[in-house]
Amino acid sequence: MSSSAYSWAQVNYQISITEPAHHLAQVRAEFQVNEAKPLTLMLPAWRSGKYQILDLAKGVTGFSAVDAQGKAIQWQKTEKSSWTLEPTTAGKVVVQYTVYANELGERTRHIDETHAYINSSAFLMFSHQQKSEAVSVQLNVPQGWRSFSGMAKGSNEHQFVAANYDVLADSPIETGINQHLTFSADGRDYDLVIWGEGNYNAAQMQKDLEKLVQQTDAIWQGYPYQRYLFIVHATDGARGATEHLNSTVIQRDRFTFGKREDYLAFLSTASHELVHTWNVKAYRPAELVPYDYLNPNYSKLLWISEGSTSYFQNQLLLRAGLMTKEEFYADLAKRLDKFVHTPGRLVQSVSESSFDSWISLGGDHGTNFGVNIYSEGYIASWLMDELILKQSGRKASYRELHNQLYQRFGKTTAFTAKDVIDIASELTGEDQNPWWQQQVEKPLNFDIEQLLASFGLQWQQDKKREIFSGVTAENKAGFALVKKLERDSPAWKAGFTSEDLIVAVNGLQLKADLAERLKDFKAGDKVQISYFRQGRLQHQPLVLADEAKGTGKLVPVAKPSRQQKAMHQAWLGVDL
């Protein structure tokens, strides 16, 4: 839609980068009120794509409000993210406030001398009365900066316009000193904007992203966008990515683009975010429609939003020729190894994990008593794929289920668990309610070897053994700080816990990585561990065990059947 369509915008914002060295911006917002009655303005408490309350209002100071004549309007803060104004006349209301933007890793807001990353959820207030009105955002930035967004451009290179606040909040802005590359594919335009220096090859990145975006028709018929923007931050101390309406922001350490495994991780992330443009943006769980910017949107289907996206990401790379079959298998082996070493898989279902994402602890307790919507959601998606492929005689797959979600809910956005079950039942000709109750509403329960065999694969474990204690630790001043303990492992049974600081083994100071030190022993050996717990030195015996070395690898079975070959081809689009 052209920017002229928004010339009547009722809400106009201005963001001025005032003190970049101190991460500060001044925001000015104009609202139109039809009558003299209270107006409540709110700043979201979270942003889309991160199911966690961030309390973004903590970065706001210096709030003030005036009417069209410049007369001060009385106001008071009525909630941690809400300001209620008392205008005495109808007409324009102007508010101003300062935003502190130094949260790069949260992908909400960051300002320095070289750029500003602006997720409007973290900068711009809204009112429920005018949330559906057209908006404009004018940036005042240092000379030489360039501005990009998934939103349409306004009347100048630093102005953007959107149909409503929801589009604004889901269309981040990257402005500053950056590299800009473009390409087109299948009638769509793509922008690649890179902020920061590093060991990346921008031209190669552009070339590979162009290959990637041409694979989405393996899943969906049609596009939810005409133009798409990749924002890449090559920086220090921040990593991760977030999907948006027709764009993404990907953050990686500036020197993690050179090695093959590092660059492949970047491409996997880019693929993940591209998949999200359909799965969670074009269609998403009904409980997330509309977004409640001040409170959590609880849903039992976030495993589809995130886990299924993870499931598809490397499939697209494989089809694009950007990932080899062996690399795909290696990634899958790591995922299976992680699944086996997640005791929480016996405790929590993907449905429960989805609902609890807003309060998920993660870490030691999370691994032992819960599951992850990404990791276990991937496995649940794979199980459903196998189910559909087998019961449909390979006439349909999990990809077709997602295409149907897009075709049916790409306009209305919202789908329910019943919709997913109904589509799966239609594709297979069998009622999938029992399967859903068994694998989604309850902890995953399946035979890994049998699942792999369906596709002509087997999990080949290394014949070599390595010491297993169940401890995951990080080096802390030369000692080992326990971060995780696998439930029912030797260390768990011995009574160790997270945050124990291990300083010695058999009375000798620990001067190397703990895992390396334990390699001096063999399974069954009892070693004396000395450690500090809450400042008190303690000693505890630990009986070591062993396990197969590494994560193993996936390889084709010796003599795959015609059925196995056909299943593999239908699954990944490549021969076994």
Model description:
The protein is α+β, with helices and mostly antiparallel strands and 576 residues long. Helices cover 27% and strands 30% of the residues. The protein has 15 helices and 32 strands. It has a seven-stranded mixed β-sheet with strand order 4-7-2-1-11-14-13. Strands 25, 26, 27, 28, 29 and 30 form a six-stranded antiparallel β-sheet that branches. α2 (202-213) packs across α3 (260-276) and α3 (260-276) packs across α4. The longest helix has 19 residues, at 302-320. The chain is globular and about 80 Å long.
Strand order of the largest sheet: 4-7-2-1-11-14-13
Secondary-structure content class: alpha+beta
Strand tally, please?
32
Rg, rounded, reads 26 Å
The N- to C-terminal Cα distance equals: 45 Å
Main sheet makeup: 7 strands, mixed
How much beta, percentage-wise?
25-35%
Shape: globular
* Spans of at least 5 consecutive residues with low confidence: 1-7
Number of helices: 15
Mean pLDDT: 96
Helix fraction, binned, reads 25-40%
